[in-house]
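Problem: given the chain below (60 residues), write out its structure.
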Amino acid sequence: MKLFKFFGSVKDEMKIVTWPTAKETRRDSWTVIMTSVMYGIFFAAIDALIIFLINNFVSK
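Solution.
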């Protein structure tokens, strides 16, 4: 059956995968978290600037 052949191939492939170490996983997770925080700060600042500019032009 094709399904059993597929899962057999998956099992064989999983044996040859090089898994990251715990240290690499922590480092990569930290990088993702910090990048997300930095983008959040950046876009919040841009948003605040745009709101400030719009409020100044609309109120005049």
